[in-house]
Amino acid sequence: MARVIVLGAGTGGMAGAYEIREILNKEHQVTVINDREDFQFVPSNPWIAVGWRDRPEVSFPIRPYLEKKGIEFIASAAVSIDAKANKIALANGDVEEYDYLVICTGPKLNFAAVEGAGPHGGFTQSVCTLDHSESCYDNVKALIDDPGHAIVGALPGASCFGPAYEYAFILDRELCKKKVRDRVPMTYVTSEPYIGHLGLGGVGDSKSMMESELRNRHIKWITNAKVTRIEDGMMYVDEVNDDGSLKKQHELPFKHSMMLPPFAGVDPVAGVEDLVNPKGFVIIDEYQRNPTYKNIFSAGVCVAIPPIEETPVPLGTPKTGYMIESMMTAIAHNLASDLDGKGEANHRGTWSAICLADMGNTGAAFVAIPQIPPRNVTWFKKGKWVHLAKIAFEKYFMRKMKTGSSEPIYEKYTLKALGINRLKNHENQ
Q1: Is 355 a catalytic site residue?
Q2: Who contacts 406 (Cβ-Cβ below 8 Å, separation ≥6)?
């Protein structure tokens, strides 16, 4: 009997735990350790930030659903990992032993990279967590009561750009509904080299389409933007040329600002020698396994993936939801290979990306197969159907996490019909 610990119960960890439990022989124990009792659907955070959703609509208690599937749940933050001894020390004082560890912690939000950034001790808002999004909504209500400049975007080193665009568009929509948009000049400030880059070198016609959407909403933008510091009501930005030289310095006043931060590895993971890169992200091979510690796998935002390309202002590479689920499926199959003799542990995720970005009354969707170029398939579309699809997906994914099925059969075959699979065929590896 082996004990598999999944560290983290977010989009990847929760779904992955279900899949691991389903595929492994019942003699093995599957345990999930998470720093809180509730699951939170992160893609809905921008809606929380403008008051379009409430906490109960996007979160639920984890324990009853995992335990129903025979998965042990421990609600306590990890303090340290002893990878040589196969032990995890928890904030509650317990030490948990494992035979295999699957790290799905998500990232540390590195607001400290820019002076004055962040909702705690800084002057900008965030939609990275549910708590941050609720705080952001308080700030939005203050903006509606007393309108002024708004700045939305991403700080240097950021890797997750989709939510920034999404938030800019739905904030515009909310301000229009409240009839104060005419008194809120908006500027989109991003470390991307061009609008629609998304940390992915663009997807399809994302550049022209996203530029058009910003223009239609009278949102100005600054790209190649290096935010140097933020004060109460003022953001200082160095705009650079393609060669990295200074183009222009901006002093941007604001009443409200939401800026996505760069990510780093969480402290208990980042402290493990030979497990992580200098930024604290878990080093993995093509099978999601750490090369040094063969019994440690990892998936999601916490894994080390190099940037798509060199850019004037440093960017990270985004890890989107379906890409993360693809990683977890590969891990589940490789664990089964190791523990149950189900063939060679050589399963690889396709790392395909499916993204739905709401724009209030319309939306943008893209598919990239794989997410990292060169790609076999790429397209970028927009329309009201995306707005409706995102609402439907929210309900669908929440239900999926409650029923305990990581990939319902109808989802599997629907996506397969579209040429989207979680695992690579061995002949194509």
Answers
A1: yes
A2: 15, 16, 18, 19, 22, 325, 328, 329, 400
Q: pTM for this one?
A: 0.94
State the CB neighbour count (10 A cutoff) for residue 423.
15
Pick the CATH number of 111-262 from 3.60.21.10, 3.30.1380.20, 3.40.50.2300, 3.50.50.60: 3.50.50.60
Q: What are phi and psi of 292, to 5 degrees?
A: -85, -50
Question: CB–CB of 409/398 below 8 Å?
Answer: no
Whether a cis peptide bond, with omega within 30° of 0, leads into 156 is no
Residue 353 is predicted with a pLDDT of 82
Q: Which of 104, 160, 176, 302 is catalytic?
A: 160
Residue type, 350: T
- Is 302 among the catalytic positions? no
Amino acid at 396: Y
DSSP string for residues in 133-178: HHHHHHHHHHHHHS---EEEEE-TT----HHHHHHHHHHHHHHHHT
pLDDT tens for each residue of 162-185: 999 999 999 999 999 999 999 999
Residue pair 118/260 in contact (Cβ under 8 Å)? The answer is no
Rounded to whole angstroms, what are the CA distances from 283 to 54, 294, 299, 331? 36, 11, 10, 14
Span 207-250, pLDDT tens digits: 999 999 999 999 999 999 999 999 999 999 999 999 999 999 99
Give me the sign of the Cα torsion angle 115, 127, 357, 141: negative
